[in-house]
Amino acid sequence: MEPVLAIRRVSKRFDGTQALDDVSLELYPGEVHTLLGENGAGKSTLIKIMTGIHQPDTGELLLDDKPISIANSAQAQHYGIAAIYQEPMVFPDLNVAENIFISHQNRGAIMRWGNLYRDADAILKRLGVTLDVRSPARGLTLAAQQTVEIAKALSLKTRVLIMDEPTASLSAHEVAQLFKLTRNLRDQGVAILFISHRLEEVFEISDRITIFRDGKRISTGLAHEYTIERAIRDMVGREMESFFHKTLSQPGDVVLSVRGLARQGVFEGVNFDLRAGEVLGFAGLVGSGRTDVALALFGIAPPDAGEIYFQGKRVNITSPEMATQLGIAYVPEDRRQHGLVMPFPIVSNISLPTLRRYINRIGLIDFDRERRTANEFRNRLKIRSESIATPAGKLSGGNQQKVVLSKWLNTRPKLLILDEPTRGIDVGAKSEVHAMINDLAQQGLAILMISSDLPEVLGMSDRILVMREGRQMGIFSRAETTQEVIMTAAMGQEAAS
Amino acid sequence: MTAIRRLVRPEQLREISLLILIVLACLFFSTQINGFLSGRTFARVSTSVAIITVVAVGQTLVVLTRNIDLSVGSIVGFCAYFVGMQFTFDRTIPPAAAVAMAIGVGALMGGFNGLLVAYARVPAIIVTLGTLAIYRGLLVEYGNARTVTTANLPSWLVGLQPTNLFSIGDIDIRLMAFIAIVVVLVFQLGLGYLQFGRRLYAIGSNPDAARIAGIPARRTVFLAYVMCGALAGLGGFMFLVRFGDITIVAAQGLELQVVAAVVVGGVNIFGGSGTMFGAMLGAVMIGTLEYSLTRMTWISQFWKDALLGGFILAAVAADAIILTRIRKFWARTELTLAAPVSETPEVRRAAGD
């Protein structure tokens, strides 16, 4: 049998990272092909290339054995390639039928409502679902919205359907329904590229499996040739990098205690203690609730149940201002959106949360002292820039991260929360940041580090808390755990070893 | 070239190009209007610019935080009328009390805007469009078809308008212009040196980062509105001084001139950047055009407004298209210029190599 779509030796590079490295993949009609890999393995990049959002640097895409180039999503649609995502992209104010036919430009200038509803009904019937085509999309459940997306794909005569974590926000019952639909589509000859982090599901639905790691294809095979153990090994299977110089030390007093912390529908039952001088790693997949726990501790999205004790006292943190005053600092995941004021020079960014300290007797900002502090941090954290007057927006990712760190270290925190501290920064800067985290812990800071980078979590942490779908799966000590154990817990399997 | 570049930072280009434009416009109008380049023109233009400038300074505070205040015209009108009315009841009100009254009423009105925008989270454009009508309605209700006339005002107030502080040649710097300059200087220094000023910029350029940094964003936005209202109140007092005769349509449409001055003056309408000097230059530009077009009697009133509007569009479009490119070029050459500097031992030590 000929593949519908063949990806041949595609590579793609973004300024620091090789997102895809010489990757090939074939999709055959009537198969569910699952793509597995850790966060950052290159799955998203591949999808974006298939849907025309990115162009490959080298390599080609073949549709029915003929090379094609996909410049935008309209063209992808024209070739019969469609994608549905975890968050369905429906128009809430339009009704079901309008949503299904939203991308059909050839239905004439005048809306023929009768035909529209009849055709929409026919498509939904083919899928075997009942849904009122006249009801607005706003009130639909996520699962129903996804059904609308699938109906849309079907109406566009889609030959390749990409399903990017469609089950992540669905209940078990809804997942079963979605899988029924998926098999239905497969039996009609559609090639489906399925992405999920839930391994049980993957083995339930897949015909074939391909595993990516660090932008490379590691293996492809029939689903029954794989075991869960093998899949995990292929996903994480790299050696621990040697440049983590973790200094083990005797942790001090308990700085933070969390008991039964929960936020409705986001996370629940989070319990842990964190001592001075200790690094507690937070591992889990994207969306497992790690960041939400951090946001709760920092008062951005306060919890609605549970207790937080900070330095022995029960606290109720309701705003970032309050958290800062207690001595908690939060280095957010998204530097651009949450960390820095890009047009501001380095010096103003560093003094932003602590500006009160730089006011002189007559109420004016003391620029000299402000600059002195910024220069101190620039030397201590080795921020590479022309001067402290350089706008933050002009710095490289690694240097921006150092500015964010400086800013929060200057608040002299007792507890430092780091959310993906090394995401998007190059290897050199990464090991500098690691050394810095190690130093800070040595100086007695309590550090909570969220990271999707498994070697990083294992290399830097004293203990590792693993979360999955808003629940705490366990706390593992550094000495007694491996990447496989963490990954297994994060994906909801019983520990294999 | 290098020397100029060292003196002028890219973000100041906007102010300088505006200054050049003002000079060019004056030169052009001097060929069209008899006796344009005279002390008399300056006195006239500077008085009307003074009012726009004071209100524009307040507007800038609000715009820097990614908000807008469309009600300033109504606040100016209400305060002018309200203070004028008090004089018709009691002529012996001392000057300081009159000014304080105008500023106080303005601040109150600004505070109401601020409350709704910052704490009730209603979009600024909707709140202030509403209060634009409400404050004007209050004025109509309070005015009850009466009119403030110069005859009812105390002589010290009427005498303020032609008061000269000092003269340079035949150019008189009047009290009104002086007040505006002081307001601009005070608030410009405040933006640079006060925690409050830094907060305005931070909130406008990245609200999320500002919140996470623990900045009290709501209080800051609220205060910006209070100050904007207070300055509009001061503008109202100046309006009363300038015209003397105040009807219930006083300062109607002033908000458009003020917003135009702020935008032409290079204050980013999406917040986060801009200076008081820029807003002042914008006010000068708008005031000069307004006056000159009025003097060119062969241009009808309707065309005058259209030309003014066209100019504002051109100024903002020019900024978006041409000036951004110039600034980029400027910044690029600055970078290559700076490259050898990073090789000095001091920097290398700082970089830890």
Q: What's the helical proportion of residues of chain B?
A: over 70%
The strand order across the widest sheet of chain B is: 1-2
The CATH class of chain B is identified as Mainly Alpha
Number of strands of chain A: 20
Number of domains of chain B: 1
Structural class of chain B: mainly alpha
The Cα radius of gyration of chain B reads 22 Å
What gross morphology of chain A would you assign?
globular
Our count of helices of chain A gives: 17
Brief account:
By secondary structure, chain A is α/β, with parallel strands linked by helices.
Note the topology.
The complex is a heterodimer of chains A (497) and B (353).
Chain A (H helix, E strand, L loop, with lengths): L4 E10 L2 E11 L4 E5 L6 H8 L7 E6 L2 E3 L4 H6 L2 E5 L10 H5 L12 H15 L14 H14 L4 E5 L7 H16 L3 E5 L3 H7 L2 E6 L2 E7 L5 H9 L17 E10 L3 E9 L3 E6 L5 H8 L7 E6 L2 E3 L4 H7 L1 E4 L3 H5 L6 H6 L15 H14 L16 H13 L5 E5 L7 H16 L3 E5 L3 H7 L2 E6 L2 E7 L5 H8 L7
Parallel strand pairs in A: 3-8, 3-9, 6-7, 7-8, 13-18, 13-19, 16-17, 17-18
Antiparallel strand pairs in A: 1-2, 1-4, 4-5, 9-10, 11-12, 11-14, 14-15, 19-20
Chain B lengths: L1 H6 L5 H20 L6 H26 L7 H18 L5 H25 L4 H20 L11 H6 L3 E5 L2 E4 H19 L1 H11 L1 H6 L4 H27 L10 H11 L11 H20 L5 H38 L6 H7 L2
